[in-house]
Write a structure and sequence with these properties.
The chain has 11 helices and 11 strands. The protein has 339 residues and is α/β, with parallel strands linked by helices. A 7-stranded parallel β-sheet has the order 3-2-1-4-5-6-10, sandwiched between helices. A two-stranded parallel ribbon has the order 7-9. Helix 1 crosses helix 7, helix 4 runs parallel beside helix 5 and helix 6 packs across helix 10. The mean pLDDT is 96.
């Protein structure tokens, strides 16, 4: 099979390509990535001699480039996006361009080149927020109710994907997953930001009181879920993907990482809250019952692997951490937003 992966130099795309070429070694992958701040071109340094991997630098909005790449492609796995909620509050237009217009452009090109099978990677954030203290979970039937510019653009992209399936018969599937963690995540995100701050002897900024909750999914479990949907999913269907939910409040996660790294809780620093700060939990019964997938990694084992990876890959994250922290200084943890 010939696969186009978009955004494959980012966190999940990188893990997915590594996973796929290990588990399906005869398939061929073209990785189309614009190489934004979130990309790391060194992620495939070991693949120079792998004839089943090809990198193309480019934008999913570039129709002429898609016309060159798409002939012969059997499947598109669409990861490319602007992904950081905090940056979407600072500069929403970048999110509209890639997440909405880019997804539309890619769909249109997939249609033009013979209705190529299209799997869209989306997020639980499109469903809005679960009230603090509630044990409710999002599922495939939850109404869309996005809160941030990021989640609004992802919601829009989901609607376009579904519309191309219904209107033009494009063979689509969608997955809405919870927060991923693991190797290769940009240190702008909570888990790698915590780990790299602790390595550097810095404090951990916790937004608000740390009471907001997430559903943490180890990235390899996510890659297996995507494989399961590609291999066995029903065309036109959406599948929700989440983790084992042992703990989910941010403050509990922060304390867990501090303990695993042998540090003191004195490093916790409560800072101004994120506007429209959501809470998420995912019910993954459908993919489990219909397709037989379930998450395998416990939070403890996944965090240990992730910490070990960041401790031994400082050269990988050092530059992107400097870029991320410069962004946070500019944003000043929301204090400057309304000035
Ligand atoms: P990431 O920010 O780490 O990487 C995104 C990649 O997309 C980068 O390599 C970037 O260069 C590329 N890109 C951006 N704009 C592009 C464009 N116009 N054309 C081509 N490439 C472009 O993202 P991630 O965390 O790996 O997320 C991947 C996907 O998974 C996204 O669609 C995101 O919405 C979704 N998702 C992520 C999470 C999470 O916890 N990280 C959770 C749920 C869903
Ligand atoms: O320094 C921090 N302190 C803090 O308390 C950071 C960076 C975050 N937080 C909080 C905000 C959130 O409640 O931690 C939680 C996680 O924040 P992020 O890592 O920014 O992730 P989140 O906003 O939950 O979104 C992530 O998961 C869903 C991805 O960035 C999205 O792309 C994905 O759709």
């Amino acid at each position: 099979m010939k696969i186009l992966v978009t955004g494959g130099l980012g966190f999940i795309g990188t893990n997915f390509i590594h996973y796929w070429l290990e588990t399906h070694p005869t398939d061929q992958i073209t990785n189309l990535d614009k190489v934004t701040y979130a990309a790391n071109p060194t992620n495939f340094d070991d693949y120079v001699d792998n004839h089943n991997y090809k990198f193309v630098k480019g934008d999913i909005n570039d129709v002429a480039l898609l016309d060159q790449i798409l002939p012969g492609i059997d499947l598109i796995v669409h990861f490319a996006a602007e992904t950081h909620v905090d940056r979407s509050i600072d500069d929403p237009m970048a999110f509209v361009k890639t997440n909405v217009l880019g997804t539309y452009t890619l769909l249109n090109s997939a249609k033009k080149h013979g209705n190529i099978r299209f799997h869209h990677i989306s997020t639980d954030e499109v469903f809005g927020s679960i009230p603090l203290g509630s044990t409710a979970q999002f599922s495939e039937t939850s109404p869309y109710d996005p809160s941030s510019p990021y989640s609004a653009t992802k919601a829009s992209s989901d609607h376009f994907v579904r519309a191309f399936g219904k209107t033009f018969g494009l063979p689509i599937t969608i997955s809405n997953c919870s927060n991923n963690y693991g190797p290769y995540a940009n240190p702008e995100k909570l888990v790698p930001r915590m780990i790299t701050n602790l390595i550097d002897g810095q404090k951990i900024p916790v937004y608000g009181q740390g009471a907001n909750f997430r559903d943490w999914l180890y990235v390899t479990d996510h890659c297996r879920a995507i494989d399961t949907i590609i291999s066995h999913g029903i065309i036109g269907e959406t599948y929700c993907i989440g983790g084992l939910k042992e703990t989910s409040r941010n403050i509990d996660l922060v304390k867990k990482v501090i303990k695993l790294m042998g540090k003191s809780e004195d490093v916790i620093e409560y800072v101004a809250d994120r506007p429209a700060h959501d809470n998420y939990a995912v019910n993954w019964d459908k993919i489990s019952t219909d397709l037989g997938w379930k998450p395998l990694e416990t939070l403890e084992s996944g965090l240990k692997k992730t910490i070990d990876w960041y401790v031994s890959h400082e050269s990988w994250w050092r530059d992107s951490k400097a870029e991320a922290e410069a962004f946070y200084i500019k944003l000043n943890n929301y204090k400057n937003l309304n000035k």
